[in-house]
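Hi all, posting the design record for the shared folder.

TITLE: backbone redesign
STEP: 1 of 1
STRUCTURE INPUT:
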């Protein structure tokens, strides 16, 4: 699904109806839909995969049952139009309207949820135009602190009482540490309080260094996540002052590679080296791989 990542004004309803429709679709996905396990990178360890899977199978906004039914009524108005009391079959796909967390909390079957959804449609959605229902939907979910933030599953590398599995949220104001189960915000780190954000060039580690003036106790937090590059790019887009720090963490590896290429290029210009090629057939067919080697002339 194509999703908006940069939310500069996350509490304002846009005037463009097309943008309203796109934000509405993304909002429904955040409230109702479950993230698919296929988004877990294959590079992550098996232990990390299990922890990420448990975190990913959750809705992104901590809506209550009452709010979930209000949103379901608005969503039904957008999708189905005006209520039809004699067409309860329109609400048979309960997962289309309700988060799985809310659905499981009541221990009700899908057949028992159908009349509840029909009543929510009649009570909260009836009589509203499609664009009005979308605006109401957005106005409701925009009240949550995590709206407009992109959530990344991560493991906290340290000792604290909140467990190792956390969600690292990135928004226009800073970074947030979120509990995966109830989506409560544990800590907030505004961008002006962040001294640097370093990406480990060889491992899936992110090191968050805070300014000494604002944080007298713990100033360094380390997280493990296979999505470190995406997090770094998003932070750099929101707060360009940190872009140099983010790039600098990977600079040693790039400098080593660049130095090696510079040495070879200078040797080539002086005529001290020449290139040779060798062909090695593979067992997959007639495809051959060509390997180039540098021979130094002494």
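Okay, here is what came back for every position:
SEQUENCE:
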């Amino acid at each position: 699904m194509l999703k908006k990542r940069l939310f500069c004004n996350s509490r304002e309803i846009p005037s463009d109806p097309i943008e309203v429709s796109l934000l509405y679709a993304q909002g429904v996905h955040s409230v109702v839909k479950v993230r698919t396990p296929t988004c877990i990178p294959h590079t992550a360890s098996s232990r990390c995969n299990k922890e990420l899977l448990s975190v990913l199978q959750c809705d992104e906004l901590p809506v209550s049952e009452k709010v979930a039914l209000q949103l379901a009524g608005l969503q039904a108005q957008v999708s189905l139009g005006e209520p039809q009391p004699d067409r309860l079959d329109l609400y048979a796909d309960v997962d289309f309207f309700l988060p799985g967390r809310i659905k499981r909390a009541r221990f009700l079957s899908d057949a028992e949820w159908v009349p509840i959804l029909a009543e929510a449609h009649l009570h909260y959605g009836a009589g509203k135009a499609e664009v009005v229902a979308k605006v109401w939907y957005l106005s409701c979910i925009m009240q949550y602190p995590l709206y407009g933030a992109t959530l990344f599953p991560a493991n906290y590398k340290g000792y604290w009482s909140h467990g190792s599995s956390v969600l690292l949220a990135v928004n226009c104001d800073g970074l947030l540490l979120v509990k995966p189960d109830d989506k409560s915000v544990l800590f907030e780190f505004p961008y002006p309080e962040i001294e640097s954000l370093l990406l480990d060039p060889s491992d899936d580690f992110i090191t968050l260094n805070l300014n000494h003036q604002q944080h007298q106790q713990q100033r360094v937090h380390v997280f493990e996540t296979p999505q470190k590059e995406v997090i770094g790019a998003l932070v750099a887009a929101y707060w360009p002052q940190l872009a140099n720090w983010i790039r600098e963490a990977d600079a040693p590896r790039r400098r080593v590679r660049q130095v090696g290429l510079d040495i070879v290029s200078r040797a080539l210009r002086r005529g001290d080296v020449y290139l040779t090629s060798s062909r090695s057939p593979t067992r997959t067919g007639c495809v051959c791989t060509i390997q180039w080697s540098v021979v130094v002339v002494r």
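COMMENT: The beta strands are 150-156, 165-170, 174-178, 185-190, 194-199, 205-210, 220-224, 273-281, 288-296.
Let me know if anyone wants the other runs.
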